[in-house]
Design brief:
Order of helices and strands: HHEEEEEEEEE
Organism: Aurantiacibacter aquimixticola
Bound molecules: calcium ion
Helix content: 10-25%
Distance between the termini: 49 Å
Shape: globular
Radius of gyration: 17 Å
Number of strands: 9
Number of domains: 1
Oligomer: single chain
Keywords: Signal
Strand content: 35-45%
Structural class: alpha+beta
Protein name: Lipoprotein
Signal peptide: 1-27
Length: 177
């Protein structure tokens, strides 16, 4: 009985620590969760409510601090053109989520490498179209943020593939209609 109670207690700890938030676990690890409502708030604050916006999201702890970041890819005819759309990384902050990557002209897939820079996992982001060659870019954290565009420095072309976070054809859900 004691053991069972302890297991339940441990299993409910992550939800307890985020008490007051509506938490939804997704991505590869069921034990992890991010606050989808707070992330949607941050995305709406970033993009506004003009035009239709869809987003695909997974959670992954990029800086290994025990709290998952949200890795997001946007799909929107309003904001994005033939060169792709924004990829974002949002990290938990004391009052919501803070954007540490907001990269234009990205495509899926988005992957994580086993290497890291300044304590944050390196990312690989696809790009191409709209007059650009198709390729993959290595995105490295600089201490404050990841690069804002995969097609120019400090991002650099890479042949590395990494572990896919957001697949080439992910499920998008509506942010703003
Ligand atoms: Ca983290």
């Amino acid at each position: 009985m004691k053991t069972n109670f302890f297991k339940v207690l441990v299993a409910s700890l992550p939800a307890f620590l985020l008490a007051g938030c509506s938490t939804i676990g997704f991505g590869g690890d069921d034990d992890r969760s991010v606050d989808r409502g707070a992330i949607e708030d941050a995305l709406i604050e970033r993009f506004g409510r003009e035009g239709e916006i869809d987003y695909a999201m997974v959670s992954y702890d990029l800086d290994d601090d025990g709290r998952d970041e949200a890795i997001v890819h946007i799909r929107s005819n309003y904001y994005c053109g033939s060169g792709g759309c924004n990829a974002l990384v949002l990290t938990p902050d004391f009052n919501g989520y803070r954007i540490v990557m907001d990269a234009t002209v990205t495509r899926t897939p988005i992957a994580v490498l086993d290497s890291e820079t300044r304590g944050w996992s390196d990312l690989v982001v696809a790009y191409g179209g709209g007059g650009r060659d198709y390729g993959r870019a290595l995105m490295r954290f600089d201490g404050l943020s990841y690069p804002g565009n995969p097609t120019v420095a400090p991002a650099e072309r890479t042949s590395r593939r990494g572990d896919v976070l957001i697949s080439e054809d992910p499920d998008y859900r509506e942010l703003v209609d």
